[in-house]
Predict the structure of Probable tRNA sulfurtransferase.
Amino acid sequence: MAVYLLKLGELTLKGGNRREFERILRRNLAQRLRGTGASIQTTAGRFYVTCDESAEIPVETVLDRLFGIAGWAKTRDCKKIPQAVFDACIEEAALLRENGLRTFKVEARRTDKGFPLNSYEIRSEAGSLILEQFPGLTVDVHSPDAVIQVEIREKAYIYSMARKGQRGLPVGTAGRGLLLLSGGIDSPVAGYMMAGRGMHIDAVYFHAYPYTSDEARQKVVSLAETVGAYTMGIRLHTVGFTAVQMRIKERAPMEWTTVLLRMAMMECAQRIAFRRKAKCLITGESLSQVASQTVENISCTQSRITLPVLRPLIGIEKDDIIRTAKRIGTYDTSILPYEDCCVLFSPPHPIIRGEPAEANRIYESLELADLMDEAVRETTEEKCAFPE
Ligand code: ATP
Ligand code: MG
């Protein structure tokens, strides 16, 4: 059997919030561990996951990805007998040596005061036994390569190789948000970030078939699946937007087309959000990254809707966004060369500082209402879960 000890995130949360956080984290964990045969134990604000050795890889994948876990470690558990505890410490030290680590310290905590040694005694005794056994290892109390942790609780737990988790808040503690998901680099990262603040994520993709291909849509599905591994799955809404885009292209001044398309997307997304009881929209916009993302044009694109638009990437540099995209596994899909919906129009001189009153005057002249109703009515839905 393998035992994992989980360290929870955001320890500053107090009282009722904290209980709610733990309840939802436990529920998410149980849902994601389904099929692995793993079980969850919670005692005194600690989470343990126990599983068969054959399930270690899928279980560790879940622990790596679930929001709300600050860190986790595979632990040895043993009887609360000093000799058993010291043997486990020696085994742990052997593991460190195998991994090429040279310096260590031992830390001990004891919630069971019935254990015959206090934490100071556990530390010094374990430390000297390890030094005796492994002359290659030395103690460094300030910046050791590894810390061997001993915890005397219901059982004794010994571990050293702690891994960082995603941190953040468990998905489901902050309501639902609707992500505008394109096939690009930015929007998948934006969805990931808001899920990390506890939001449930639905996604909407605007498709302009046949100007955008089935492959382009497939790419979005695949991004939704990858992000879905962190967000407890994603429900993806696909909106056929060809007619709306054609109307904009036919009737609007060329330099305004991109801003008007964004306005139409926002309006349509808000209607889907209302239907799904989502409390906000989420986009991958980053200030001044492209012409449509100046603060003036952002004023235009949000001028027709009332829901807040969350833009977690607004102040983040492209390099940093790319780094996150690589870490979460969306980057390679995002850079596949399928066209996105803007191929219908890329005006050579787009409006850079649009004025909302003017934008709305043009928008209204397009008479989009019927086309928008139709697009909303024909929207399709699918659940994208991570293929395990
Ligand atoms: P991304 O990398 O996310 O595609 P981008 O840098 O290409 O962003 P834009 O094309 O200006 O920027 O899009 C800004 C935001 O608008 C995107 O991050 C996304 O949230 C939304 N968006 C753009 N196109 C679509 C689409 N076809 N379907 C859904 N949302 C879209
Ligand atoms: Mg894009």
Notes: The chain has a mean pLDDT of 93. The first strand starts at residue 2 and ends at 8. The two ends are 22 Å apart (CA to CA).
